[in-house]
Amino acid sequence: MEEEPPRLPIDVLVVGAGNFGAATAFELVKRGYKNIALLDLDSSPNPRAASHDINKIVRDDYPDPLYMRMLQKAMPLWRHHDNYKEYYHEVGMLRADPSNFGPESIASYKNLGIHSDARMMPVDEVRQGWNGVFADTNFGDLSHVLYNPNVGYGEAEKALGAVLKLGAERGVRFVQGTATKLFLGPDGECQGVVLETDQILRANKVLLCTGARTPALLAASAPENKLLHAGDRIIATGAVSFHTTLHGEQRAKFQRVPVLKNCLPEVKGESMSMLEDGTFKFNCDLCFTNYAVFPATGDKMSLVPDDDEHQVWTGPDYIKFFKEKAQKTMKGLYGKEVEGVAIENYRMCWDASTPTHDFLITPHPHSPRLYIATGGSFHGWKFLPVIGEYIADMVSHQLDPEYAARWAWDRAGNDDHSANPTYQVIGDLQDFAKA
Asked: Pairing relation of β-strands 56-58 and 152-154?
């Protein structure tokens, strides 16, 4: 292996230019760090990253006050800051949820002294509003749904691209490539990463913002050292998105409809508000693993597939199981309003899920100079304007103790909750692909 020719010594090497990585690199240079490097395949949003997407939900309704406090800082930035406001669209959001999520979120606003216009809206009122697009929605036996007019969606790829550009303008050094393993000293200290070219990229600190690929990267770095491995702390999980395009009168009818998340078992999905060009994106509100034997260890683990077909946007021909799920979700969300609407593209989005859907933002206790920031668990993107502050605090060993405890490598109890009580694992990709 050859070391990369020295330039300036890298202070912090951020591996992965998705949401967490791009935001942290930008935050570190804002704080005066001079030698920050960001490693990824492309200086624009990587289409394989979870953060690369058409649009994603931006909401602040969390029963959990820890995350609501973060969004108390993030929402004004989405609305008003020049870095983000262009990509944020406050169209409101409806959440059909048989749990107590709605009332608990409203109570959380009040407990934290946060003004919100969120309310439990009668289903009859929902059906009569917004040009009647929800007239045939499957709300089951629900009498009320949570309506929050003060949230919406963000154009994901564009917002992430803007943060990457801002970081580069402030001095973040982009390094193109893929880390295949960590470069560890004899005592397990992380001294850098090994690239696919066998070059060694050294750094004073290494921050892994590698999402669903984190477990494999750690295991490949020291196959025999189980203390380095992620274990069950983070699991690579996939979820399916799909989109269509509306035209003519139908497009006019769906202008600025709110985001809809429907948690009912017979629907389990989300619809984003339509973009100006008529693009309408949906998510199936579930996730799955992809277990296979990992060559470096000989053990089975959930792995992100290597081929593009199972990572990036594809055409209308897809795995039968997911095509059926998508049709069921779209029908449950809009019923007769979307009869005859063809799904044009599908995508598997891979993220790192944790047992409680809390993030994992922590120094690695068994490898000095190694830091981890992952575990988005399909709800991390909305924190883009502020997540870099928390991760930068962690790298500087200044993270607020409450957050440090919740996001620790080894959590002390408190596992009887879910920070994002949806996107539960329903099975394994290999089984669905064979069906």
From this structure: antiparallel
* Crossing angle of the two packed helices 156-170 and 19-30, in degrees rounded to 10: 30
- What CA–CA distance (Å, rounded) separates 64 from 80? 25
Tokens of 391: 């991760």
Task: Calculate the alpha carbon distances from 59 to 23, 66, 187 in Å.
Answer: 18, 14, 44
Strand ranges (E), 297-406: 299-302, 345-353, 360-363, 370-374
Token pair, residue 28, equals: 């570190």
Q: Report the distance separating Cα 97 and Cα 100, nearest Å.
A: 8
- Strands (DSSP E) along 185-307, which ranges? 190-195, 199-202, 205-208, 235-245, 259-262, 269-271, 279-284, 287-289, 291-294, 299-302
Other CB atoms within a 10 A radius of the CB of residue 304 amount to 21
Average pLDDT over residues 50-65: 92
Task: Report yes or no: 202 and 183 within 8 Å, Cβ to Cβ.
Answer: yes
Q: Measured between alpha carbons, how far is 40 from 173 in angstroms, rounded to an integer?
A: 11
Assessment of whether the complete model's pTM goes beyond 0.85: yes
Phi-psi region of 418 (alpha: psi -120 to 50; beta: other; left: phi over 0): beta
Look at residue 205 and give its three-state secondary structure: strand
Token reading at 12: 């912090």
Where residue 48 falls among pLDDT bands split at 50, 70, 90? Answer: confident
Distance from chain centroid for Cα 195: 25
| CA of residue 260 relative to chain centroid, distance | 18
Residue 43: pLDDT band (50, 70, 90) is confident
Q: Compute the distance between CA of residue 367 and CA of residue 9 in angstroms, rounded to an integer.
A: 20
Reading the block at residue 420, the tokens are 């994002």
Q: CA 261 → CA 264, 347, 351, distances in Å?
A: 9, 19, 19
- 198: how many CB neighbours lie within 10 A of its CB? 9
Spatial distance between the Cα atoms of 28 and 109, rounded to a whole number of angstroms: 31
β-bridge pairing 287-289 and 88-89: unpaired
Residue 3 has pLDDT above 80, yes or no: no
DSSP code string of 130-165: GGGTTTT---TT-SEEEEETT-EEE-HHHHHHHHHH
Distance CA 331, CA 353 (A): 28
Of 218, 288, 278, which Cα lies nearest the Cα of 254? 278
